[in-house]
Amino acid sequence: MSGPVTDADSAPLAVTDQPSAACVELSDSRDELVGRIRVRRALPRRGRRTIGAWCFADHMGPADVDERNGLSIGAHPHIGLQTVTWLLDGQVLHRDSLGSEQVITPGQLNLMTAGHGVSHSEEGTGHRGTVEGAQLWVAQPSGTRDSAPAFEHHGELPQVEYGNAVATVLVGELGDTLSPARRDTPLVGADLALHDGSAVLPLRRDWEYGLIVLRGGVALDDQVIEPGRLAYLGEGRDELTLDAVEPTRALLLGGEPLGEKITMWWNFVGRSRDEIDCAYQSWQAQDDRFGRVGSALPRIPAPPPHWQQPAAGL
Q: How far are the Cα atoms of 1, 66, 163, 244 from residue 232, in angstroms, in the given order?
């Protein structure tokens, strides 16, 4: 489910995103194939890499899976980010170089911190039926991005009702409701289950926010947000009023603007091309930086960064 980021998503240059004032900026997600599963990539986009520290958002599926055809993503590496895995349907098996082996089902959360370097695989479980979910990345700040890797699983998460919506707080805080999951910057990631009618959510004026609809549709400031689009909401809002036009599931992402330049390429989040080059060389050399994953799936080789490739015709 995770990555990779390509040049079509975000030019691999060190960039600091600047938050906008309160707005509703709509952008289309981009279709990708990750493993054998179709995903809609809402973030990053050229011109909008981050929302708070959130730097990546894929909506996976829904896809039909069985014992032979399902999620099949072999071992691949990460640096400088946290992966947040959330399912609406189905099952996924997580394995990583820390020795973690964890099946995740709807209502549960997997959070892996890459720090200086970690590798993992994402696999089917033999589940027959439908799989659907979201894979999110959080860019780690300078204070923790070179730290040791870690993994945590949360079988239950706090929920709170706002009018006709039930919010499950995946990471961070929404109003007075706080997730038990690790957070390295002030932020929120919440799953919203909306019934017909309105919901008013509390926001923080000094944070920026975005909304990704996974199922259904919501009206926001006279615009209807449907699956396949990212609504960037800017900062300066005290609250957010959503009107469900049908039963809806959506993700609210927000946080304090990161305020740091980041370079994104493939499965890495760094601060410079030199950092990305070092990570790429370690993965290709199969040295100890990323460890080993106990998976039967083939290890995924990294393509060389485009700046290492000779220019066409030379």
A: 23, 36, 23, 18
**Over 50: is that where the pLDDT of 70 sits?**
yes
- Please give the Cα distance from 103 to 84 (Å, whole number): 14
| Residue 10, pLDDT score | 55
Alpha-carbon gap, residue 178 to 58, rounded angstroms: 24
Q: Note the pLDDT tens digit of each residue in 215-242.
A: 999 999 889 999 999 999 999 999 999 9
Q: What are phi and psi of 285, to 5 degrees?
A: -80, -10
The mean pLDDT value of the chain amounts to: 92
In one-letter notation, the amino acid at residue 53 is A
Which residues make Cβ contacts (< 8 Å) with residue 165, sequence separation at least 6? 192, 193, 194, 195, 199, 201, 242, 244
Tally Cβ neighbours within 10 Å of residue 180: 12
Here the tokens at position 8 are 């079509």
Instruction: Set out the domains of the chain in order of their start, with CATH numbers.
Output: 25-263 (2.60.120.10)
pTM, two decimal places: 0.93
Q: Where are the beta strands (DSSP E) in 44-142?
A: 54-65, 72-78, 81-89, 92-96, 101-104, 109-113, 118-123, 129-139
- Reported as type and span, the H/E element at residue 264 is strand 263-265
Residue 283 in 3-state DSSP? helix
Cα distance between residue 295 and residue 114, in whole Å: 18
pLDDT of residue 312: 43
26 contacts 225 by C-beta, under 8 angstroms? yes
Q: What is the pLDDT of residues 142-161, one digit of tens each?
A: 999 999 999 999 999 999 99
